[in-house]
Amino acid sequence: MTDAAIERPCAATHRVEVPALDRSIECREDETLFAAARRAGLRIVGACGGRGHCGSCMVRVLEGRVHSDGEGPHKKWLRSCCVQPRSNLAMELAPRSLAPVVRADVGTGGDAQALPLDPVVAAVELAVEPASLQQLASDGDRLHAALAALPSAAPSPNIDWAAVATLPGLLRRHEWRVQARLQHAPAGPHRVVSAFARPGAPLLGLAVDLGTTNAAAFLIDLAGGQRLASLGLENPQVAWGADLISRINHAITVPDAAGQLRRAAVQVIDALAHDLTRAVDAGVDDIADVVVAGNTAMQHLLAGWPVAQLGRAPFVAAASEALDVHAARLGLKVDAGANVHLAPSIGGFVGGDHVATMLATESHWLQPGVTLVMDIGTNTEISLVRRVGDSVRIASASSPCGPALEGGHIGSGMRAAEGAIERVRIENDELQLQVIGGGRPVGLCGSGVLDALAAFVQAGWIDGRGRIVAGRHAAIGEADGVRCITLADEAEERRRLIPAVRFDQNDVRAVQLAKSAIRTAVKMLAAEAGMDELQIDRFVIAGAFGAYISVDSAVAIGLLPPLPRERFLQVGNAAGLGVQRMLASRERRARAAEIARQCRYVELSSRSDFQKTFLQHIGFGS
Questions:
Q1: Does residue 62 lie in a domain region?
Q2: 132: number of CA atoms within 13 Å, CB side?
Q3: pLDDT, tens digit, for every residue of 561-582?
Q4: In a domain, 579, yes or no
């Protein structure tokens, strides 16, 4: 299978068949299977961006010859980012290496409780006097007359230039009746007719939590405040790396890479808008307002702003205040007159998603005492809030811990999808696994990674320094020269189809780095406030990942401080709730901007004691 004799690949192109997906792609001899798959839109996982570090892009060559870099000829499963074709091929993707399309649930029927409603956009139904030889005023003039005749008439708003183009056709198709969408200016009381729609069209808004790994969106009825549907998709930018730094490096070193990343962000928002409106029998042109919250890098990439300055000290944003831009300028396929509101950021990589989290959890951190709010993810964002009387002080920091805690950069890691091990226990020295969907295990998702590591440490299979202890249990062995613990291994006839699920020494180190980065941020923010982490009164854990982890496991491995269990509160996707509130209410947008200004950003990596604190928490006895 491996042709090591070929040292200088030529530019010949070969066809690569993927029978299980009924797909075929073209791959040149001077590119990897991973790069060709990404170029062709095949959603293969690549947590390290195709640099050969993580082992998340595994494939098995069924037919044909390949050249592999660093992959031994005895291996059945190869890293696709290290393999180039030397003939036409047939290949299979490992189940955990195919990125799932849908990550969250679609829900229709609405929430029981409506959001407080004061939207930027309102709709009015108008009956316009028909044009005739006796009434020769322009369509716009007659529309202004109809607006002036409304009972709550205010000074007649201007009509947006782009909206004028749709007015004549709508009036004549709908017997001189039309819906006008009035949009408040970003600053001040003035309003403008931003768009026209068919009479009785729903007035919808889209709230987007643009995460590094997943994007979640919520469709809101802006006339009643109900959430109509919600959906999550994997962020297609993961094809260029699971972490922010990989994407920033790609954007600044590869021609048009920044454009590719921007288009990927637009693509996922468009997909969310399409699927959500279809779920409620509406159209994308019914979306009259959009709010997007993401970390600083995500918002920069969507807006098309430069990111080079974010990738190096002192990690400065191009802009941090809330900004508004026409959806059409970004290329979003929603109502042509829709506005996109980018949430304000705080500093460094602490972005609009954390501001949205703070907005949604305000009732917790405004209580007297000390509250820590943390959104665990690829880029973990943390705020320490101290309230004494009427005084509220907020210090914020980020911890770029990478995707290991979500299953990325883990040899057998995968998304939280069917087949993922989500819970691990050791009872009577035997492994007990809980698998999503109840079927065969094919990998470990984030909550399973934390559970497994905690169980191994508590059972003595891994020592306090993070070393897997040889001979401690039959599950401990070696694979490819690396010590590992095997959680699930199929019989030989199935091993060809599903790789074994293992947790090896490299995986332990990846989690150690991630958990130490987070714990260091907690410790140093507390020290910044002149206190110890054990003095924190409330520990609010936000985020979809944070909702599913075992707090006991996180404390056991030293990810979280050893506080009493009742001090921890898991609140789910608070950023998603916060961005919905910003969409539904102008007052909540103003409050979000106020919170962002109130937060003081702390760059921890520049502190003299950062490295010492980090090393103190790298083991499992801290």
A1: yes
A2: 6
A3: 999 999 999 998 899 999 999 9
A4: yes
